[in-house]
Amino acid sequence: MPQRLLIRLVDAEYAITRFTIGSAIPEWLPGPGFWTVSSSREEMTLVCRAARVPSSVQSSLGWRCLRIEQHFSFDVPGVLASVLDPLTTAGVGIFANSTFSTDYVFVAGSDLEKALQALKEYGHEITT
């Protein structure tokens, strides 16, 4: 596990939205910044910049995005845990997503300063 990670605070507010299974992926989803679609047997979840989400969509707004800047192979243990552990200790709830190359951790905007402080105290470097 890496001792110190470089974590970028993405300069945008994000929304986590919920759709029923079988819903069409909305045309407003793709665009700048991170966005993703996850589907399970219970629901379909979309994450994207909050500015794109219509007010009529069931959403949790005000999320801030932290992106791990380094890239690690899948067999390196503990990368995501080294971010989640200090956030858990600080009492910060998270919503996590991973891509092939890296991980994204979303924290409520109201917890952002507490989250950044916890990550710095753990030894991670925060950049914008």
UniProtKB/TrEMBL annotation:
One Pfam family named in its UniProt record: ACT_7
Domain of life: Bacteria
Coiled-coil ranges (or none): none
Residue span, CASTOR ACT domain: 61-121
Residue stretches making up the A9CJY8-like N-terminal domain: 13-55
Protein name as catalogued: Uncharacterized protein
Species of provenance: Sinorhizobium sojae CCBAU 05684
